[in-house]
Amino acid sequence: MHIFCVDDFEIFKVNGGGNKKEEVFDKIRQIKGNKLKQKEIEVETLDFESQVLNVIGVDLVNGCNLACKYCYLSASSIGIKKLSENKFLDILNFLHEEKNHKVVFVFSSGGENTLNFDLMKKIPFLCRENGFLDCSFDLITNGTIFTNEMIDFFKSNNFTLHISLDGDKKTNDKNRVYPNGRGSYDDVYDNLCLLKENGLAFSCNVLLQFDSDNVIEVFQFFEENKIHFNYDFPVDSLDGRFIPDTSGLDQWLMQFETIMDFYKQRIENNCSVYADKLIKDIKRIHFGVTNGFACNASIDSIHIGISGSIYPCSYNSGSEELCIGTIYSGLDYDKIVKSKLYAKQVDCYDSCRECWIKYLCSGGCFGLKWVSGGDTDKPTSYNCMIKKSYWEAVVKLYIRLSRYIKENSLFDYNS
Ligand code: SF4
Ligand code: SF4
After folding, report:
1. CA distance 388 to 402
2. CA-CA distance, 75 to 111, in Å (whole number)?
């Protein structure tokens, strides 16, 4: 039996034999006495206005060439609208106080941002010309419409590329389809090969589907194809058109065990692992990397929609209720605080205080909480269920691998 310390992720082995129950209680008393930290972080005293904005999401487009069945924006049904060069200059004007430090521009939402490549290709120049000398660019794209010109541009401007792909053809094409129903896999896969041929680094973003009884195949696909990837779980769409079917969630979550068995073998056999999120999460346990805040949205990170409206993050883009200002009127700090449109320190949420993964989950996405329950303080039950099952599987995997990690000095350097 093992005891997991919520506060710093240290894991204690409790030996069997004798009065095991008493031994467990003793150990818990000892851990509590020695280790329990009283964290009193009053996020409400945060001075929002003095925060520096570091991460700026920008919608270059509203609309999409795909019509994914779970799209949280229903992007294919809203027509294609593009951000103009003048509006982008207005955005830079709004951000003028941030010129002297690093700014990360993230093109992640609103639809498929490469549909406005005419503007995208001017952005690095526009930033430099307007005094933003330390910028980097992240692009999350459906990867269906790359051209050689785009590839050269991404390469010469050091774009960080994240391509949405849900796995093999059968899995991906269940949901990631064009408006006529044709799957997007073939086009995306060809473009991934093009990126590889051109030596461009990228990773894939995978949405694991609750209706799949063979999620392991998704993981196997990325490992076999040597494609780095991160994974996430379906969420309610902003307009309520898509609500994940969680009816068989209990059964679905049991698949984590199979996935972790697969990775235990890969790691012990010294095979490369392309599941970047899993490796990052194992390292979090190993190094005790706690996190009390789910994100920095509204604090040092914002998202700007095509009209110049500002939202906490890309997930909220287009929502009037979650709008926190405009590039012309500035950020509405009163609304951010009154409507609780920021992530509080996890101990400030009544529902999270006693949760064993509170410093791993950090309280979850406040935008999602708002969309599914109208209250950014209340976690969504299915989301908590997924997170707890996932982290339980990761912690168990770590315990099973801990001797191997130690004996092989696996994380002695950042590999
Ligand atoms: S690619 Fe993204 S924005 Fe486009 S339909 Fe699919 S989920 Fe929505
Ligand atoms: S799993 Fe749920 S209860 Fe636990 S920290 Fe996350 S949101 Fe809070």
Report:
1. 21
2. 5
Does this model's pTM top 0.70? My answer is yes
CA of 164, closest atom in ligand 1: 1
Cβ-based burial of 395 (10 A; exposed 0-12, middle 13-18, buried ≥19): buried
Q: Is the pLDDT of residue 415 over 50?
A: no
Strand duo 81-82 + 11-13: pairing: unpaired
Read off the DSSP letter of residue 396: H
> What is the set of domains in the chain, with CATH numbers?
1-38 (no CATH), 50-287 (3.20.20.70)
| Measured distance CA(9)–CA(191) in Å, rounded | 40
**Other residues' Cβ atoms within 10 Å of the Cβ of residue 94:** 22
The per-residue pLDDT for range 72-98, each reduced to its tens digit, is: 776 667 788 999 999 999 999 999 999
Please tell me the distance between residue 254's alpha carbon and the centre of ligand 1 in angstroms: 28
Beta bridge partners of 105: 56, 137
| Residue to mutate (ligand 2; options 6, 290, 348, 351; most atoms within 8 A of CB) | 351
Locate all alpha helices (DSSP H) within 165-272, ordered by sequence: 169-175, 185-197, 216-224, 249-253, 255-268
pLDDT of 35 > 70? The answer is no
